[in-house]
Design brief:
Blueprint: E1 18-19, E2 25-36, E3 39-44, E4 50-54, E5 58-59, E6 64-65, H1 72-76, E7 83-84, E8 87-92, E9 95-100, H2 103-116, E10 128-134, E11 142-146, H3 158-164, H4 170-173, H5 179-200
Parallel strand pairs: 1-9
Antiparallel strand pairs: 2-8, 2-10, 3-4, 3-7, 5-6, 8-9, 10-11
Length: 201
């Protein structure tokens, strides 16, 4: 949607929603709202930074690969595989934050929900209490352990209810790109990478 001239700011604005940061040791959050089901590719962009690009072959609503939309990443990088990248929102530290879920932790939460019920329910939901444990020297050598006995049902406080009163859907927080928008970004990233290669010659 376009904005009126007197409403534009002239530069990119930072999102008002921050991200949940996983830390070593004990972690606690309260999941709120809906779950965004998606898969992403990681493309190497400028300065060697990885850029997440949503896999458009995956349907968020049915949680299936249906190949309805043109997925330009497959066209440009046929050997690249996409990975599980579900996300939701949570309350942590008195703020609403986006949380990029960890697959093994999410599987433990789903199993615990069979006994504890829906963790997102404002009245009967429960806090997600878990540990992040280093299992080796590399950054990805971590394990997430749900502490099910600490996950006690509790209603949201009045302050927490105020925080989620106007909660946006994850589809709005992380909108799905169109195939044209995905292609345009890929062309820009690939163009910038080619320019960097030319400078090295």
């Amino acid at each position: 949607m376009a904005i009126a001239f007197n409403q534009q700011k002239g530069s990119a604005q930072k999102s008002s929603i921050s991200s949940f940061q996983y830390k070593d040791g004990d972690n606690k959050m309260r999941i709120v709202g809906d779950i965004l089901a998606r898969y992403v590719y990681w493309i190497t962009g400028e300065n060697g930074k990885n850029i997440p690009m949503e896999c458009l072959s995956f349907d968020r609503n049915s949680e299936r690969f249906n190949n309805v939309d043109k997925d330009w990443v497959r066209e440009y990088y046929p050997d690249l595989k996409c990975g599980w990248s579900y996300a939701t929102q949570c309350i942590e530290g008195g703020k609403v934050k986006v949380v990029n879920l960890k697959k093994k932790l999410w599987e433990q939460i789903i199993t615990a929900a069979e006994d504890l019920g829906d963790p997102t329910d404002p009245d009967t939901g429960w806090d997600i209490c878990f540990k992040r444990v280093k299992t080796g020297p590399l950054p990805y050598n971590v394990e997430y352990q749900l502490q099910a006995l600490k996950c006690k049902p509790r209603p949201l406080t009045d302050e927490e209810r105020d925080l989620v009163a106007d909660l946006k859907s994850m589809d709005d927080v992380m909108s799905r790109p169109t195939p044209d928008a995905q292609k345009e970004l890929l062309d820009r990233v690939r163009g910038a990478a080619n320019e960097a290669d030319d400078e090295l010659l």
